[in-house]
Amino acid sequence: MTDAAEGTPARPVAEAPEAAERRAEAGVPARRSTPRWVDALVVVALAALAMMAVLTVVARGAPLSVLDEPSHIDYAWNASQLEIPAAGDSIDPEVIALWNCYGNELLRLPACGTTGPAEAYPVSAAQYNFSHPPLYYLATGFAARAVESVTGWNFVLSARALGAVWLAAGMVVMHLALRRLGVGPALAGSVAALAGMWWAGLTAATIVTNDAPFLLTTALGLLALGGAVDPPGRHRWLPAVLLVALAALAAGVKVMNALPFLAIAGAFVVLALLPERYRPWAGRGWLLATGAAMVAAVGAVYVLWTRFQAGRGDPDWENPVEGVNTQPFTGTPFLEWLPTIPRGLSTMGHTYAQEGVASGELVAFVGGIGSIVGLAAIFVGLAVARRGSALAVIAIAALIGSLGWPLIVQLQSFLSSGGTHYFPRPSARYGATMGFVAFAALALIAQRLRWQALVIAGCLAVVVTTLVTVVMGPVAGS
Questions:
Q1: Chain center to CA of 200
Q2: d(CA 386, CA 367)
Q3: Best CA proximity match to 417, nearest among 301, 297, 296, 336
Q4: Measuring CA to CA, how many Å separate 240 from each of 226, 251, 399, 457?
Q5: CA 91, 95, 96, 102 torsion: positive or negative?
Q6: Res 347 pLDDT > 90
Q7: Contacts by 34-41, CB closer than 8 A, 24 or more apart
């Protein structure tokens, strides 16, 4: 770009002093001119990284995951034919035949291409995930059919390969969200790569599961939040509407995918209760109204879909997985739930990867380190955040969401079991989105305290370790 009069390169326009002051007061880093090709290069690198990692894992044809993958495949298969599963349904015979070809991580199944008796499969091949909202399954089902028709791959391979698209989109939007929040391109790209190559994110992207879009939905929430906290806010209604709409969309994928929006809503309420000097970018009314609308949107999707499914299928059906990971109450429900709340603080302690992809020891080690880093990011963020800043909102949201997701899991279990069961040990994957929020806090802390080089080095170390593991496979004997 050149100046027409002088014929010399035009200089980036500096941010107006008034705008810079407003951004400084709100704790939003000042905007610095970065050539667009830099962000474009980072976006291409992130997409390539996601595609390479996911497709490498998918090409191995690992057995169907114990994380309910057969029932998710069946839901997507039926959704591609505009059929929604209901209570009492069994997994489709064509999906069963594919299941036999891929195998199961825990059981020996009948021969490939055959359809054995129901008793040969876990929980008699029941479709027990019909209660989930349909958006992920509709998108994956139709897209997998298209991939199948073009490539000749089977439905399972096609649906799994789409995880590369979910992960690439999540990493790219995470980068854009961090840039919107004022993080430099190298740091934003490194943290986005870390989120995608974290075992929780990578594992979800390499199997058919409605967890696959959870990095994307989280990143979209952070991107909308960036628009809300960026002063002066003449059109602050627009990011509010966007936050509410995205919250409803995330709940339409899976209720737990909407957890970041519920956490942000909680942070808005906390800020609204504080003195005005702690929230210079929005008034109490905006914070309360936006937070309430986000919660209402998620609740409406959950209630409407639950009522829709309650009127379909076998009314006397009993969930065959009830009691596998849950157990009956022996006392007052809340007293049973209370000891599970601290588990929420280990949201990055993911300890599962597919068979033949990574050793359990490595995944557990990385997850343990991640839990420590995530906790540190939350509390350091609370300590160093400026009043009403994006970091303050994100750190508060990460703390609320981390402590709150076990209670959401318990409430869902309570409602689905008719008030009889609870989760004694809720899995960290249910709250994995809070790990991504903590990563965002880490990026903002590094920008605020000038720790960019240290955090970038740490991110790249994890990314390289994951890539080497994906390409080489787990160590012998693991």
A1: 9
A2: 30
A3: 336
A4: 11, 17, 22, 35
A5: negative
A6: no
A7: 34/184, 34/185, 38/185, 39/175, 39/179, 39/185
Q: Is residue 254 within 8 Å of 136, Cβ to Cβ?
A: yes
Q: Could you write out the DSSP letters of every residue in 117-164?
A: -GGGSGGGGB---TTS-SHHHHHHHHHHHHHHHHH---HHHHHHHTHH
The one-letter amino acid at 198: W
Intra-chain end-to-end CA distance of the chain, in Å: 56
> Which of 100, 117, 202, 115 lies closest to 154 in space, CA to CA?
100
Tokens 């075992």 locate to 199
Burial code (b: 16+ CB inside 10 Å, e: under 16) for 107-140 equals eebeeeeebeeeebbbbebbbbbbbbbbbbbbbb
DSSP classification of residue 320:
T
For residue 422, give the H/E element and its range.
strand 421-422
- H/E stretch holding 57 reads helix 36-59
Q: How far is CA 36 from each of CA 29, 40, 370, rounded to the nearest angstrom?
A: 18, 6, 32
Tell me the mean pLDDT in the region 292-296.
97
**What is the token pair recorded at 213?**
């879009």
- Residue where the block lists tokens 């957890």: 259
pTM exceeds cut of 0.85: yes
Provide the residue count of the chain.
Answer: 478
**What single-letter DSSP state applies at residue 340?**
G
Nearest Cα neighbor of 260 from 279, 247, 248 is 247
476 or 390, higher pLDDT: 390
How many Cα atoms sit within 13 Å of 309 on the Cβ side? 21
d(CA 449, CA 464): 25
SS3 2: strand
Region 234-259 average pLDDT:
91
Which pLDDT score is estimated for 29?
Answer: 54
Report how far residue 166's alpha carbon sits from residue 132's, in angstroms, rounded to the nearest whole number: 18
Tokens in use for 157?
A: 């391979």
What SS3 state is found at 90? strand
Q: Which of 105, 98, 134 is nearest to 122 (CA)?
A: 105
